Protein backbone atom coordinates (compact mmCIF):
# COMPACT_ATOMS: atom_id res chain seq x y z
CA UNK A 1 0.00 0.00 0.00
CA UNK A 2 2.83 2.36 0.92
CA UNK A 3 4.60 1.56 -2.37
CA UNK A 4 1.48 2.45 -4.35
CA UNK A 5 1.35 5.81 -2.63
CA UNK A 6 4.99 6.44 -3.42
CA UNK A 7 4.41 5.59 -7.10
CA UNK A 8 1.41 7.91 -7.17
CA UNK A 9 3.49 10.70 -5.65
CA UNK A 10 6.21 10.16 -8.26
CA UNK A 11 3.62 10.33 -11.03
CA UNK A 12 2.21 13.54 -9.60
CA UNK A 13 5.72 14.94 -9.36
CA UNK A 14 6.45 14.16 -13.01
CA UNK A 15 3.09 15.65 -14.07
CA UNK A 16 3.75 18.82 -12.08
CA UNK A 17 7.24 19.15 -13.57
CA UNK A 18 5.98 18.79 -17.16
CA UNK A 19 3.13 21.25 -16.53
CA UNK A 20 5.49 23.97 -15.31
CA UNK A 21 7.88 23.30 -18.23
CA UNK A 22 10.82 23.41 -15.77
CA UNK A 23 13.41 20.68 -15.71
CA UNK A 24 14.12 19.37 -12.20
CA UNK A 25 17.59 18.20 -11.45
CA UNK A 26 17.69 14.41 -11.08
CA UNK A 27 20.18 14.68 -8.23
CA UNK A 28 17.80 16.95 -6.34
CA UNK A 29 15.02 14.42 -6.77
CA UNK A 30 17.25 11.53 -5.68
CA UNK A 31 18.51 13.44 -2.66
CA UNK A 32 14.96 14.30 -1.74
CA UNK A 33 13.91 10.67 -1.96
CA UNK A 34 16.90 9.48 0.07
CA UNK A 35 16.67 12.15 2.78
CA UNK A 36 12.92 12.21 3.13
CA UNK A 37 10.91 9.30 4.28
CA UNK A 38 7.67 10.73 3.02
CA UNK A 39 7.65 11.64 -0.69
CA UNK A 40 4.77 13.98 -0.08
CA UNK A 41 7.06 16.22 1.95
CA UNK A 42 9.55 16.15 -0.95
CA UNK A 43 6.82 17.11 -3.42
CA UNK A 44 5.69 19.92 -1.19
CA UNK A 45 9.23 21.28 -0.95
CA UNK A 46 9.68 21.09 -4.72
CA UNK A 47 6.36 22.80 -5.35
CA UNK A 48 7.34 25.52 -2.91
CA UNK A 49 10.64 26.03 -4.72
CA UNK A 50 8.84 26.15 -8.06
CA UNK A 51 6.46 28.76 -6.73
CA UNK A 52 9.40 30.81 -5.49
CA UNK A 53 11.11 30.53 -8.87
CA UNK A 54 7.91 31.52 -10.67
CA UNK A 55 7.41 34.46 -8.33
CA UNK A 56 11.00 35.58 -8.89
CA UNK A 57 10.49 35.31 -12.63
CA UNK A 58 7.33 37.40 -12.49
CA UNK A 59 9.02 39.97 -10.28
CA UNK A 60 11.98 40.09 -12.66
CA UNK A 61 9.63 40.72 -15.58
CA UNK A 62 7.83 43.42 -13.61
CA UNK A 63 11.10 45.08 -12.60
CA UNK A 64 12.31 45.04 -16.23
CA UNK A 65 8.93 46.08 -17.62
CA UNK A 66 10.21 49.51 -18.67
CA UNK A 67 13.17 47.96 -20.47
CA UNK A 68 10.91 45.46 -22.20
CA UNK A 69 8.56 48.27 -23.22
CA UNK A 70 11.53 50.29 -24.51
CA UNK A 71 12.76 47.25 -26.41
CA UNK A 72 9.33 46.75 -27.96
CA UNK A 73 9.24 50.44 -28.90
CA UNK A 74 12.71 50.23 -30.44
CA UNK A 75 11.69 47.14 -32.39
CA UNK A 76 8.63 48.99 -33.65
CA UNK A 77 10.79 51.96 -34.65
CA UNK A 78 13.20 49.63 -36.43
CA UNK A 79 10.27 48.12 -38.30
CA UNK A 80 9.21 51.61 -39.36
CA UNK A 81 12.74 52.50 -40.46
CA UNK A 82 13.09 49.26 -42.39
CA UNK A 83 9.72 49.86 -44.04
CA UNK A 84 10.84 53.37 -45.04
CA UNK A 85 14.10 51.99 -46.43
CA UNK A 86 12.16 49.39 -48.37
CA UNK A 87 9.93 52.07 -49.89
CA UNK A 88 12.99 54.18 -50.68
CA UNK A 89 14.69 51.24 -52.42
CA UNK A 90 11.53 50.54 -54.42
CA UNK A 91 11.39 54.18 -55.52
CA UNK A 92 15.12 54.08 -56.28
CA UNK A 93 14.65 51.04 -58.49
CA UNK A 94 11.83 52.85 -60.27
CA UNK A 95 14.05 55.90 -60.78
CA UNK A 96 16.83 53.66 -62.12
CA UNK A 97 14.42 52.17 -64.63
CA UNK A 98 13.34 55.65 -65.71
CA UNK A 99 16.95 56.83 -65.98
CA UNK A 100 17.80 53.76 -68.05
CA UNK A 101 14.95 54.57 -70.42
CA UNK A 102 16.06 58.22 -70.63
CA UNK A 103 19.65 57.16 -71.37
CA UNK A 104 18.46 54.85 -74.13
CA UNK A 105 16.37 57.67 -75.60
CA UNK A 106 19.33 60.07 -75.39
CA UNK A 107 21.57 57.52 -77.09
CA UNK A 108 19.09 57.18 -79.95
CA UNK A 109 18.84 60.97 -80.22
CA UNK A 110 22.65 61.26 -80.19
CA UNK A 111 22.95 58.77 -83.05
CA UNK A 112 20.27 60.61 -85.02
CA UNK A 113 21.86 64.03 -84.40
CA UNK A 114 25.29 62.68 -85.33
CA UNK A 115 23.90 61.33 -88.58
CA UNK A 116 22.19 64.65 -89.33
CA UNK A 117 25.43 66.49 -88.56
CA UNK A 118 27.38 64.26 -90.95
CA UNK A 119 24.76 64.85 -93.63
CA UNK A 120 24.90 68.61 -93.07
CA UNK A 121 28.68 68.62 -93.21
CA UNK A 122 28.69 66.62 -96.43
CA UNK A 123 26.07 68.89 -98.02
CA UNK A 124 27.92 71.96 -96.78
CA UNK A 125 31.20 70.75 -98.27
CA UNK A 126 29.54 69.99 -101.62
CA UNK A 127 27.68 73.30 -101.60
CA UNK A 128 30.83 75.21 -100.68
CA UNK A 129 32.72 73.57 -103.53
CA UNK A 130 29.84 74.32 -105.90
CA UNK A 131 29.85 78.00 -104.91
CA UNK A 132 33.64 78.23 -105.27
CA UNK A 133 33.47 76.73 -108.76
CA UNK A 134 30.55 78.90 -109.80
CA UNK A 135 31.43 82.32 -108.41
CA UNK A 136 33.77 84.60 -110.36
CA UNK A 137 35.87 86.54 -107.84
CA UNK A 138 36.70 90.18 -108.39
CA UNK A 139 40.43 89.41 -108.25
CA UNK A 140 40.12 87.15 -111.32
CA UNK A 141 38.34 89.85 -113.30
CA UNK A 142 40.94 92.44 -112.32
CA UNK A 143 43.96 90.26 -113.15
CA UNK A 144 42.65 89.07 -116.53
CA UNK A 145 41.60 92.55 -117.62
CA UNK A 146 44.58 94.52 -116.26
CA UNK A 147 47.62 92.26 -115.84
CA UNK A 148 50.11 91.53 -118.60
CA UNK A 149 49.52 88.30 -120.50
CA UNK A 150 53.08 87.20 -119.88
CA UNK A 151 52.71 87.42 -116.08
CA UNK A 152 52.40 84.39 -113.82
CA UNK A 153 49.23 85.74 -112.20
CA UNK A 154 47.49 86.00 -115.57
CA UNK A 155 48.39 82.41 -116.43
CA UNK A 156 47.10 81.11 -113.07
CA UNK A 157 43.79 82.94 -113.43
CA UNK A 158 43.49 81.70 -117.00
CA UNK A 159 43.68 78.12 -115.74
CA UNK A 160 41.01 78.93 -113.16
CA UNK A 161 38.83 80.57 -115.80
CA UNK A 162 39.01 77.50 -118.00
CA UNK A 163 37.95 75.33 -115.04
CA UNK A 164 34.94 77.58 -114.42
CA UNK A 165 33.97 77.47 -118.09
CA UNK A 166 33.98 73.67 -118.05
CA UNK A 167 32.10 73.55 -114.75
CA UNK A 168 29.41 75.97 -115.95
CA UNK A 169 29.01 73.97 -119.14
CA UNK A 170 28.48 70.80 -117.07
CA UNK A 171 25.95 72.48 -114.77
CA UNK A 172 24.13 73.93 -117.75
CA UNK A 173 23.24 70.41 -118.86
CA UNK A 174 21.87 69.79 -115.35
CA UNK A 175 19.60 72.86 -115.64
CA UNK A 176 21.23 74.59 -112.68
CA UNK A 177 19.51 77.96 -112.25
CA UNK A 178 22.65 79.62 -110.89
CA UNK A 179 24.34 79.22 -114.28
CA UNK A 180 22.34 82.12 -115.67
CA UNK A 181 23.74 84.45 -112.99
CA UNK A 182 27.40 83.96 -113.93
CA UNK A 183 27.37 82.75 -117.52
CA UNK A 184 27.51 86.22 -119.08
CA UNK A 185 30.30 87.34 -116.75
CA UNK A 186 32.41 84.27 -117.50
CA UNK A 187 31.81 84.52 -121.25
CA UNK A 188 32.78 88.20 -121.34
CA UNK A 189 35.88 87.42 -119.30
CA UNK A 190 36.76 84.63 -121.72
CA UNK A 191 36.46 86.96 -124.71
CA UNK A 192 38.62 89.54 -122.96
CA UNK A 193 41.30 86.92 -122.24
CA UNK A 194 41.17 85.66 -125.84
CA UNK A 195 41.57 89.18 -127.12
CA UNK A 196 44.66 89.80 -125.00
CA UNK A 197 46.13 86.39 -125.86
CA UNK A 198 45.56 87.02 -129.58
CA UNK A 199 47.35 90.36 -129.43
CA UNK A 200 50.22 88.81 -127.50
CA UNK A 201 50.58 85.92 -129.97
CA UNK A 202 50.51 88.24 -132.98
CA UNK A 203 53.20 90.34 -131.37
CA UNK A 204 55.42 87.33 -130.74
CA UNK A 205 54.89 85.95 -134.23
CA UNK A 206 55.74 89.30 -135.78
CA UNK A 207 59.14 89.12 -134.13
CA UNK A 208 60.04 86.17 -136.35
CA UNK A 209 59.62 88.38 -139.45
CA UNK A 210 62.21 90.91 -138.38
CA UNK A 211 65.72 90.35 -139.68
CA UNK A 212 68.58 89.69 -137.29
CA UNK A 213 66.12 88.65 -134.61
CA UNK A 214 67.10 86.20 -131.89
CA UNK A 215 64.41 83.61 -132.52
CA UNK A 216 65.21 81.82 -129.29
CA UNK A 217 63.61 84.55 -127.14
CA UNK A 218 60.12 84.60 -128.73
CA UNK A 219 60.24 80.84 -129.12
CA UNK A 220 60.88 80.36 -125.39
CA UNK A 221 58.06 82.77 -124.61
CA UNK A 222 55.68 80.75 -126.77
CA UNK A 223 56.77 77.50 -125.13
CA UNK A 224 56.36 79.00 -121.68
CA UNK A 225 52.79 80.06 -122.45
CA UNK A 226 51.76 77.09 -124.57
CA UNK A 227 48.58 76.84 -122.49
CA UNK A 228 47.30 79.82 -124.49
CA UNK A 229 46.83 77.52 -127.47
CA UNK A 230 44.81 75.04 -125.40
CA UNK A 231 42.62 77.82 -124.05
Automatic annotation (TrEMBL):
Gene Ontology MF: a single term: syntaxin binding
GO biological process: endocytic recycling; Golgi to vacuole transport; lysosomal transport; retrograde transport, endosome to Golgi
Domain of life of the source: Eukaryota
Vps52 coiled-coil domain sequence ranges: 60-231
GO cellular component: cytosol; GARP complex
Pfam families per the UniProt record, alphabetical: Vps52_CC
Protein name per its UniProtKB record: Vacuolar protein sorting-associated protein 52 homolog
Species the sequence originates in: Meloidogyne incognita
Lineage: Eukaryota, Metazoa, Ecdysozoa, Nematoda, Chromadorea
Amino acid sequence: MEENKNLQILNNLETSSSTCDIEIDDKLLINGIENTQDLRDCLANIEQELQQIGQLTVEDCINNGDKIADLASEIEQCDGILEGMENMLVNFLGDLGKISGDMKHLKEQSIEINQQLNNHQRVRAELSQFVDDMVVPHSMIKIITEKDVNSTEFLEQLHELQHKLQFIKTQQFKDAKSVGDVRDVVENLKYKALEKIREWLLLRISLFRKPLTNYQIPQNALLKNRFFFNF
